[in-house]
Design a protein that fits this description.
The protein is of the alpha/beta class. The protein is 25% helix and 26% strand.
């Protein structure tokens, strides 16, 4: 692309108003914005794939959280992978592919320090937003550092058919877990968990109380709970803990749209079982990234780790993809292809 044909405008999704409860299209707008000339040390990137993720719902509110909220009337952002059009930084050249965090738009200008080169010959570009991106790394860190899987552990994963959950169950098994149980929101997803992702047992949480279905799946209790959902799932898992069990809090997607959140009523069982409840932030555990790349890359190359993506086409459908993901309509990682 020559200087004469470089884009001077971009299209970006903006947060117009903060949602009260479940977000709707009225809270957002897709706008055309000016695209300045990249300065020293900066890159101009044409985005190829955008990520939409559950944590973004929290950023749409102004509640205290582990990450800053989106500003009202400003462009939104999130993980993306794209191609460098212009580089004013050492180490990057036009044609390079990079992962960065200025998604929800078609073109982005950012400091090169915020971009990481990826190789499309090693893995398809969307994989760097999913199995080789933050979701895969999240599952790996949560299980490796916090769950500390032991040989023969019984592991329960909620939201098991999502981007993190599909990887968490497989990684737990590869790390030596004996019985891996997953929950999902449809019979089709339950079938996929068992037939494609290697879960030993799976159940549809819409078919009955989670506590009852979990007790049937793990009558002797669970050693590890990897929680992506919260709410009823968390309470059920607390009630099913073995001695010295570990609960790893990854997400609470069932409560992201709730104005008032009610906690589990059986926390005393943590004391009864002398169990740990643990939370983590991926950005604080990045010393594990080389191990993640080595192990997960190896499992992928050997065909021992499987993944899926749900892909929506077009920047204009980014919001629809996000809302569909929040409704649980995705299997694996939800991605937008530009």
């Amino acid at each position: 692309m020559s200087e004469q044909t470089l884009p001077t405008t971009a299209h970006a999704w903006h947060l117009d108003t903060r949602p009260a409860g479940r977000p709707t299209a009225s809270n957002f707008s897709l706008r055309e914005v000016d695209l300045p000339t990249p300065g020293a040390g900066q890159l101009l990137i044409a985005n190829d794939y955008l990520s939409v993720d559950p944590y973004m719902r929290g950023r749409m509110s102004d509640k205290k959280s582990y990450i800053e909220p989106y500003d009202v009337d400003a462009p939104m952002d999130g993980p993306a992978v794209g191609r460098v059009l212009v580089s004013n930084a050492q180490g990057f050249a036009p044609g390079d592919y990079v992962v960065h965090v200025l998604g929800w738009r078609d073109y982005a200008i950012l400091d090169a320090a915020g971009a990481q080169k990826v190789d499309p010959n090693l893995a398809p570009l969307p994989a760097y937003l999913g199995v080789l991106g933050v979701p895969g790394l999240t599952a790996y860190i949560g299980l490796e550092r916090f769950a500390k899987i032991e040989e023969g552990d019984t592991v329960f994963v909620s939201g098991a058919a999502g981007a993190v959950g599909t990887q968490a169950g497989q990684i737990a098994k590869l790390k030596g877990a004996g019985l891996v149980i997953g929950s999902a929101g449809s019979d089709q997803k339950v079938k996929l968990l068992i037939e494609e992702y290697g879960y030993d047992v799976a159940f549809n949480y819409k078919n009955g109380p989670v506590a009852e279905q979990l007790a049937k799946a793990a009558p002797e209790g669970i050693d590890v709970f990897f929680d992506n959902v919260g709410g009823e799932h968390l309470e059920a898992a607390i009630g099913a803990l073995k001695l010295h069990a570990r609960i790893v809090l990854c997400g609470m997607v069932s409560q992201y749209n709730d104005e008032k959140v009610v906690g589990p009523r059986n926390l005393w069982n943590l004391s009864v079982t002398r169990s740990d409840i643990l939370a983590f932030m991926v950005s604080e555990e990045l010393d594990l990234q080389p191990d993640f790349v080595r192990e997960v890359g190896g499992w992928l190359a050997e065909g021992r780790l499987r993944y899926r993506e749900t892909v929506r086409d077009g920047l204009e459908n980014t919001l629809d993809a996000f809302l569909a993901m929040m409704r649980g309509e995705n299997v694996g990682k939800m991605i937008v292809k530009l």
